[in-house]
Amino acid sequence: MRILPKALLALLFSASLHAAPLVGIQFQHNDWEIACDNTGTCRAAGYGVNEGEVSVLLTRHAGPHAEIIAQAVFADEIDDPDSLTPTSLFIDGTSRGELESGRTGYLQLTSTQRDALLQALRQSGRIEFGSNTRRLALSSAGSDAVLLKMDDFQQRIDTRSALIRPGKRSNDTVLLPRPLPLVVSYPTLANAKSVALTPAELAKVEPQLREKFAAECDLLQEEQRQPWMKTPIDDKHVTLTTLCWRGAYNESFAVWFTDNTLSAPPRFVTSDASDFTDGFIFSSHKGRGMGDCFSAESRHWDGERFVRSKAITSGMCRGMAAGGVWILPTQVSVLRKKADVDVDKAALKILHAALETLQAEGTVRALAQRFPVKALQTDFTLNPYAPDRKPSAAISDAEWQAFVNSKIVVDSSAENISFTLVDLDNDGKRDLIVHSYEGGTSLYDYTGVRRNDGNQFSVVDSRFNANHDMWPMSGVLFSTAGRGADQEGQWLEINGQISALVRDGVFGSDTFWLLRPFTNTAHAPAVTMRYHYDLRLSSGDDAPSTLTPDEQNDLMAELERVQQSLNHDKPLRAADAPVCPVPPGTPADALIFYSAGRPVTYAEQVAMLPAWHNGSCYVGTLIYLFDYSSESGIEGFLTFDSPRQDNKAPEGFTLSGTRHITGMEAGWKAYASDASEG
Description:
By secondary structure, the chain is mostly beta strands. It folds into 4 domains: about 20-175, Immunoglobulin-like (Sandwich), CATH 2.60.40; about 185-190 and about 195-330, no CATH class; about 340-525 and about 665-675, no CATH class; about 535-655, no CATH class. Helices cover about 15% and strands about 35% of the residues. It has 8 helices and 39 strands. It has a 7-stranded antiparallel sheet with strand order 1-2-3-4-5-9-8, covered by helices on one side. Strands 24, 25, 26, 27, 28 and 29 form a 6-stranded antiparallel sheet that branches. It starts with about 25 loop residues before the first strand and ends with a helix. The relative contact order is 0.09.
């Protein structure tokens, strides 16, 4: 067994974070614009033929299988949800059906409507939104250039997934999604006072600042000299600021930082600062006086420099709404305080050590038993829409009043909802955990958290709440699927900090995330355990295998190759590459039978591999049923399909076998629950 050296735990970053950083872009052409961020996600916005009427947003994540999400919005319905009326999409005068209601003032296009919209954009068709009595036209001017820019940024040109310039290249060559970078903000001097530079200090630093940046700052010109201010960051560093420029609706400051003796050469940060407070530099500017568009950036002190954590724009000034109608980021990140990171770092080491001890028996339940929640908890169940009486004497009057004030809305298959009161953030007040069972085909469970602010249990903004209408409740921390996935979640307490421990398992690995409530969990501390199986193949008693011993040995070699590929995070083959050799003259519509295996439902299609019998190749599909125990081992199947419809495939096998840990990896890792997949 290979165990990650404990020294490497200090890195606390996934390997993918060390890849060359992706730089976001912005681009505008006529009535369309695009912004792509550093994760590879692109958002393209188009506007109406007439200003201030309608806009459409097309969002696509990086990756070979990423679909486009299409939304529409009308200027007069953004701030007035009661005005939202049934709206249809019209292409060349023909209705393509009503749009689905989403967030307040926003409408969602179905996949069919989205495809019709994209086709119309490519062919300059007439696109309208509304009803038979009211139609608002969407402009297609500039859409080709913008969508081509999206394809180019995501490396889709000449691939099957390209929007404008598709080709025959495999989708496996497109840009893969990048994880959100972690930005750690270090403590700074609270409420630091700014003081004007003395004449001696000014004489020491101003010449090097003025010489280099006078061109950027009008107000650095000699005739418009502005005061220079010095503000401590910590006990070793200070910022130097002065007014840089002033316009009709905005003004900005130039910011440098240096050591507190002013001996080190000042390092430039930005010429667009709007505010500086406690190690946080914020820049925000209106596009025009009516405030229908803006841009913003934020930077945080990481102990050595100011790191840009966010850069966004609302897009073009098209008179749609105050503040714009879309948020178009070019830089996104996960922001964590150093103290929180240190706590999580210590917890991660403890979790890693516990999993080392438990080995292959490591389960969420076993870990929760090892690290039980010791804080005072009160569980209760009721209908949140009619909380007529306090369900337990263990609930204080203040907690009950806060619950009544909270207006909790939860979609659930059950009439009553389960709640837990427990102090999740160690502030002396018990917070609220909300559990919802939505059921459905995948038997979804959702767990949400609300912070006790004294008067109510409030939702703390998190990554899940940007499209809160997609989840059964606000404040979702994690979700698990009871069918079609191998997932589980439990609460535990390590070093006095309560966290949710969530496991997501696949055939070759389990990943355990520690999710702290009220923090951005897009990246979270995690331990991944990798497995190798001593596989055995069993055929049914009534249908013995027709494969010869040599053919079975070859098949076992292919299964071993699959496992080696999984252990090294390498694809076994391109997604659309043939599994079996394609005979010359095979019709184009039959090629899929040489690359596609058995479709599965509520199970994992692990891999497809060739199986040979009597000189013919068959497409084998390795299927994992999300079931493993130390007593019975793995449960799965290996099925065979003939790429030739006139050739009967041999009978498949049942898979069994125990697993062994081949490695453990610890660090900050991208977290995506079923809720985040939408």
